[in-house]
From TrEMBL:
This is Chloride channel protein. Pfam families: CBS, Voltage_CLC. It comes from the Bacteria. The keyword Ion transport applies. GO terms for cellular component: chloride channel complex. Residues 537-595 form the CBS domain. Keywords: CBS domain, Chloride, Chloride channel, Ion channel, Ion transport, Membrane, Transmembrane, Transmembrane helix, Transport. The chain crosses the membrane at residues 21-41, 79-98, 110-132, 152-170, 247-271, 283-302, 322-345, 366-388, 394-418, 430-454, 460-476, 496-515. It is a multi-pass membrane protein. It is found in: Membrane. SUPFAM superfamilies: CBS-domain pair, Clc chloride channel. It comes from Corallococcus exercitus.
Amino acid sequence: MYFLLGASNRIRLPTPSVLPIAGAVVGLYSGLAAGIFSNLIGVMSGITFSAAELAATLKPQRLRTLMESLASARWHLEYALVGVPLALGALLLARVIEPGGPRDEVKRRLRLLALLTLGALSLYYPLVGLAAVNAVFGHAHNLPAALPHLPWWLILIAPTVGGLAVGRLLRDRPETHGHGLPEVVRAVKSGANVVPADRGLLKLIASAITIGSGGSAGREGPIVYGGAAFASSVGRVLGFSRKELSILLACGAGAGISASFNAPIAGAVFAMEIILREFELRVFSPIILASVAGTLVSRGVLDEAPMINRVNYELVSGAEVFAYAGLGIGCGLLAFAFVKLLHGVEHFFHGSMGGRLSPWLGKKPLPVRAALGGLCTGVLVFLSPTVWGSGHDYINLAAAGRLPFLFLVTACVLKLVATSLTIGSGGSGGTFFPAALIGAMAGGAFGTLVHYFFPLATGPSGAYAIVGMGGAVAALTRGPLTGMMMLYELSGSHEIILPLMVTCTIASALCHYLTERTAPKVQSDEDLLVTTHVRALMTEVPAVPAGTPLRALTDQLLTSEAGTLPVLDTQGNLYGTVHVEQLREVWRDESMYPLLVASDLARKLPALAPDSDLAHALQVMDHEDVDALPVAPVLGLAPCGLLTRAAVRRFLFAQHTRAHASGDYPITPTEATH
């Protein structure tokens, strides 16, 4: 017994060992977020479709069907049998470990991870029940059969009211108006790694209202944002470094994609290719565990069936590769048109265009603009039912070759226009799912033509629909690997991988080239960092002598603006810095105060020259894994300085704000990446 107690008090939880566990926990909650979001859409859709048949909702036959649905739901009781003992054991271990020193961090991390696991289990089973209810009373699962029975007036009113509600919900929160994915990429790229949790929840609710009421938008953007928001909160509570936080944000985003598409490999590739843009070994285990956990949870609260029905295809001849290359060109052009149109609609509804209508719309409040966008979307539903909601049900019909050529062309064009109207006017949702549908419709139409002229040398139109779906996703996200792996995993066909490689690569490269060529020539973040000197952002801070007693040092640190101070060595030269976090292990121990001085806690760091650029300063911060660096005085004439990562972020944000105010966008708001 004493041996076990002694061993528990020697436990260490270094960050590399905690990160995969935290990634798995984040994956659980991303899967739960996908389930909550899907069921919210189901509730909204059920309310919309049941408006004309409310009397039939509580019929005895419907109630019997509900009981059967609850009985056949995927409850997965083994999750509780495994998760509850592990969580309770971690809580017990946290109580057994004696407090004090580094053990406090171990106790805190064990307790938080255990409570998060129990919280995930407490949410999982109610969500399974809600999914069973939605399977009976909702209509989002069978849109092609349900939409023709919807009254014409409801088709117009539902998206309008949905836009009005979303505009009112987001009116006072302009930072939540984005599509979800660009905000997460921007947070990782800037080094901020902060995505507020309350915004993630608000975006999920707003997007569920938009999609459930018939607005043309995708599910993936809000899920990515919500998963990253939860990961950001958990990572900051656990005390992860900036780099580890970026990995955890990628875990949340990748698990959200895995859960939404029931495609764990594609979710992991998405996190590494698009969010982190790196494939290092240290990021594999947390991201893969997060994707697996998110997919397992989503299969219980969503559906185990893949989004695309498995149909076997084959490459009929080697010459067919040229047809898929042509499809790649078409997908790249479509994705570029999607980006430009969505960008133009956003400008139009914000009053930035010429003429009379755009300035008039710009003066209207957000709820009015979003309602008008919803009304226009409702009108387009009469021309093509694929406009309603995410419209992913029609992908299976295109993959099976059951849609006529005219329907495919009309759906491709109108889905592109309707999504631009819904999101550009102020609605909430992503662009990933709509791009997939647009690509599927375009691919199906292209395949119909090719097969008509070359019936013996080409496959059926359904193969081109699936490959077109991957090409459009790859082009919009500029992530060819994500497009390949997602459709390879969803289709379940080994033969489809060669056409996917050709189409996704060409489409992604073409859209990237066209976007970069037509982008406004403004200074990028890299240009700003290279051309700005450290002295422009540094703060003059008096350095702390090496012999400063701990109590006086504590008072200075707690009252400093950055929580960091430069420290001199015993010869009076700049040595490094001391950060308020370094007091965590000693500030409670009164016996340490007479023994320690500033030099005992200081960390040796290279000093920056005032004339060095910010790009070099950030490289040094990344290498040392710190958020502040000392700045050496010039020939001893000037006081020491301090440059913080927060000051650099404020500088870049101010530059972006000025660029947006003048109409120049360093980051195009409609792009999925950068």
